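Supplementary Text 2. Reproducibility record for the structural model of the 307-residue chain.

All settings were left at their defaults, and a single model was retained for analysis rather than an ensemble. We include the record here because the model underlies the residue-level annotations in Supplementary Table 4.
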Amino acid sequence: MRFLLSLFGMLSVTCALADSPNLAFKSAGDGLFEFDTGVFRGRLKADGKYQGVYPLIDAATGADLTPPPGVFSPYRVFTTNRRFGNGARDWPTQPRLLDNGGVQVYWPATEHPLEMTAVYRWTAPDTLDLDVTVKPQQAMPAFELFMSSYFAKGFRASVYLQGDGGKSAGFVPVDRPADSQGGYVMFPRDQAAKRLILDGRWTIPPSPVDWALPRHLALPLALRRDAAQDLTALMMCPPGDCFAVSCPWNPDSPEAGGYRSLYQSLFGRDLASGETARARCRLILRRQLSNEDALCSYGEYTAKPVE
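Retained model, structure tokens:
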């Protein structure tokens, strides 16, 4: 905690943000909402079928930056050694436009004993915020919402990890070491989070995952960077809202096959029946974004009072 407080003090720098044109979503049919920020355009799909933000088009090049189900697609829902269905991205929804231009998506407790509400909102032309609230209808120990985001080929991952071998914390490329096994790696924030990950939830079929768990997070801060486009997708959460970040190992070449995903494990704590809990995430998509710029943006995000 002392490390986090000292780091936040260092990050209390004002970063320049782009001017804000019309950032509002617009209705585009049942459960579909389009956006055009002047920098990115695309659609939020919230119709109960493979939900997420896709396509996501770079206005400068016309390139689609994400394959289905896109970014901020709610995926696995867990409690201790239990998974609810295959993925929340296919749960029935009740979406609506908000007066501030955002979209509220509500998942009623019909198929599973959990109410969930997510608000998607563009807060700058290159910045998408997600605010998630959950309310279980029964006690849910070690509750987790596993949030997924997928990016196009060329985007290589780095995660902000605690120092190793006397080094300071920093962004570390998720490159496969020679002695690694399996295709996926997860970085928990501490030993308690690691125990939660290993409590049996990831052994449940279909698609169980045997995670590599090599190092601990310093902050829930990760990026995928496409060097050819000089474009960075920076993903972040407040420290208490996310207990692990995960992804596949970086492929040997930018053109290689496979997923270019980033996952955020949200909540990670016991929830009583009827208790309301909240977690937040932010995606920044920006050119010429250095690692120092990324830390500056994170400092601004976490320093801003929660609305």
